[in-house]
Design brief:
The chain is α/β, with parallel strands linked by helices. The chain is built from ten helices and twelve strands. α1 runs parallel beside α4, α2 runs parallel beside α3 and α6 packs parallel to α10.
């Protein structure tokens, strides 16, 4: 295993550049959990750096072994060097660089009965990561981040997604209007979330091909996008609460859509049994 003792090493500089989003073809996976999830997801990992004092830890040794079996270069680094490689406050024991997935936003709306969550101007990377996580957990088929949203494949958002961003299809697009146009081109109903004034979200029909638009912290969705939506929905809140976290909003809508789809599927199965003469 190659040893890195200098913070001026080219690999260290590369990791720092990726963490600053200066190398858009790569993403930085910080920590054993994300590196393990990336291996399991089949991500194209190109380099890894491990803290030299942690190489004998069973969890880290197992990851290093799996990486080396795949022919991925792994270097060890001193704690001072690792502090430069890992952008988190408490330095991680392992960090890796991987190729970013290359997806087009329009492709995410093609799935039959697809459900795509569109983050519109969600600036906090932790919120974007959490949106990706709840989208995967609730059965969404993808996430689109419009301009003004945090990078879903930035290191903070990746950590917030807990590995979901390595599995769920994610794309970026221009404006929220571009996302609406892509959804309409694939016959997806467009649902805009509002802090107040919309239909209660449990009353909206969410069982077909769907694009769920979630606005950013504070500003919410642009009026033009709200006006263009097929459904405008609101999550009831008790006063004096005025709004919910973007990821919480996304979770409630995704799970309501899941509930409606499950109910429809169950009804369809019962009808099919009756048609066959069953109970």
């Amino acid at each position: 295993m190659k040893q890195i003792a200098s913070r001026q090493n080219p690999l260290v500089a590369r990791c720092r550049a990726v963490a600053r989003n200066e190398m858009r073809a790569l993403m930085l996976l910080d920590g054993a959990h994300l590196v393990g999830e990336a291996i399991a997801a089949g991500a194209k990992i190109v380099n890894a750096v491990v803290l030299s004092s942690q190489t004998s830890r069973p969890e880290i040794a197992a990851l290093v072994d799996r990486l080396e079996q795949r022919g991925i270069p792994v270097a060890s680094a001193t704690s001072a060097v690792m502090a430069a490689v890992s952008p988190v406050r408490s330095t991680s024991a392992i960090v890796a660089l991987a190729a970013r997935p290359d997806r087009k936003s329009a492709d995410l709306f093609k799935a039959a009965a697809g459900m795509v969550v569109v983050a519109c101007g969600v600036q906090d990377p932790g919120n974007v990561g959490a949106i990706v996580r709840v989208a995967e957990a609730g059965g969404a088929t993808g996430v689109v981040a419009t301009a003004g949203s945090a990078d879903p494949h930035g290191w903070k958002a990746l950590r917030g997604s807990m590995g979901s961003a390595l599995r769920l299809p994610i794309a970026r697009c221009g404006s929220p209007a571009d996302a609406v146009a892509a959804a309409r081109a694939h016959a997806c109903a467009v649902v805009a979330t509002l802090p107040r004034g919309g239909r209660p979200f449990t009353d909206a029909r969410l069982d077909g091909p769907l694009a769920i638009l979630v606005g950013g912290e504070g500003a919410g969705l642009p009026d033009s996008v709200v006006d263009a939506a097929d459904e405008r929905v609101t999550i009831p809140m008790r006063s004096p609460v005025e709004s919910l976290n973007a990821a919480v909003t996304a979770a409630l809508l995704v799970y309501e859509a899941r509930r409606q789809r499950s109910a429809m599927a169950s009804a369809g199965q019962r009808e099919a049994r009756r048609a066959r003469g069953g109970r």
